[in-house]
């Protein structure tokens, strides 16, 4: 059971009609998700997809081709000769890296990148989201390798509502609107509490509304909406159909924050949630040498995508 006096975030069912109207006005300004992004999400999330499918789609998009060639010719790989054949580049990068490049690049085209304001930096948000995806993939990798693509999509998309809040904050900057001060909050206030103080809503609610507009799957939308619930609510508040997905993303999110010395951003989920995945507290028990290596590799790789 969660402590009765613990602060709890707004849930979708808590917001009133006026708040929905305000949030909807923001969501309406976001363009529909292009067909090719839907295709990428479908391929990445399909346990039976293969490298050939995503390679064909990636090589048909000029922006994606440019990104692939830039990355394969970067110092990260250090090939002695310049690679100009996109098909060879795709082979050299590998399936996992191409999936990441394709999904991140095409989502960036839809929601933008590079805004830095009021504590939000979309470049760092992409890094955090990718690390969460890699960490959650590691949880299921050995048990069920086919699930890794699904967790890549869930991890990259779980904080998509933060990009919307960043866009709002950036628009406020352009219009010279000073954001509300958070100095009245407790110094250890969670990020969701700070968001609600600044914007009247949190990134999970913004994210699920965008997911519904874009027609994303119930699985993705549920993870976006509920991924912080294990830190604040009991098991019965979370859809049982996606409980393992939600718990995996929540714990991976906590691990990345922990490794970045930001573990106070959210309360640590109770041990019952760790037990669902076969883990025990303290959180150091979950962070294996393999997980640390994968997270560090992800951090290095993403610097060459920007």
Compact overview of the structure:
The protein has 306 residues and is mainly α.
Write the CATH architecture name of the domain at 23-31 and 115-302.
Orthogonal Bundle
N- to C-terminal distance: 42 Å
The proportion of residues forming helix, as a percent range, comes to: 55-70%
Mean pLDDT figure: 84
Helical/strand content category? mainly alpha
CATH-defined fold name of the domain at 23-31 and 115-302: Hypothetical protein af1432
The 3D shape can be described as: globular
Task: Kindly estimate the percentage of residues that lie in beta strands according to DSSP.
Answer: under 5%
CATH class of the domain at 23-31 and 115-302: Mainly Alpha
Major sheet strand order: 1-2
Order of helices and strands: HHHHHHEEHHHHHHHHHH
What does this protein structure show overall?
The model has no long low-confidence stretch (mean pLDDT 84). Helix 2 (35-45) crosses helix 8 (148-157), helix 4 (62-72) packs across helix 5 and helix 7 packs across helix 14 (243-259). This protein is mostly helical and 306 residues long. A two-stranded antiparallel sheet has the order 1-2. Strand 1 (116-117) and strand 2 form a beta hairpin. The chain has a domain at 23-31 and 115-302: Hypothetical protein af1432, CATH 1.10.3210.10. The protein is built from 16 helices and 2 strands. It is globular and about 60 Å long.
Name the features.
single chain, 306 residues, mainly alpha, Hypothetical protein af1432, two-stranded antiparallel sheet, 16 helices, globular
